[in-house]
Write a structure and sequence with these properties.
- This protein has 131 residues and is mainly alpha-helical.
- The strands form two sheets. The chain has a three-stranded mixed sheet, covered by helices on one side. Strands 2-3 form a two-stranded antiparallel ribbon.
- Strand 2 and strand 3 form a beta hairpin.
């Protein structure tokens, strides 16, 4: 993999120029499945929004849609907390449920798309990332 990566960098003259004086920090690593889902989408004074909380797929490009929906829902959650009529923990848990559902739905869609398209393969399963 390291040799293949090195060759790929040299193919593009612009990249080769940018990387000319670079020093590698680590060995090259690969993955078959790049998706992840955070264990928590909120904490004291913070919310994860969009792909910081879960990443489904780079090919099918739902990142901005997921982020815009999450940002809107985080804003509504914060506003409702400020109003003070609803339990803040319930609001945060509902926010998390919505985000987990949004990301896992897209992961399932991506798995379906890859399984229906013989040109691509993707390993099944959702990876939970510790946050």
């Amino acid at each position: 993999m390291e040799e293949l990566y090195g060759e790929a960098l040299q193919i593009d003259a612009r990249l080769a120029g940018l990387m000319k004086n670079a020093t590698p920090e680590n060995h090259v690593s690969t993955t078959k499945d790049w998706s992840f889902l955070a264990q928590r989408f909120f904490g004291e004074n913070w919310f994860l929004v969009g792909e910081s909380g879960g990443f489904a797929d780079p090919i099918l490009s739902a990142g901005l849609s997921i982020t815009q929906g999450a940002a809107r829902e985080a804003a509504f959650t914060i506003i409702e907390q400020e109003i003070g009529k609803l339990d803040p923990m319930w609001l945060k848990n509902e926010y998390q449920k919505l985000q987990v559902n949004r990301v896992t739905t897209h992961m399932r869609f991506a798995d379906y798309w890859y399984s229906a398209n013989a040109q691509f393969q993707r390993s099944a399963g959702i990876h939970i990332q510790n946050s």
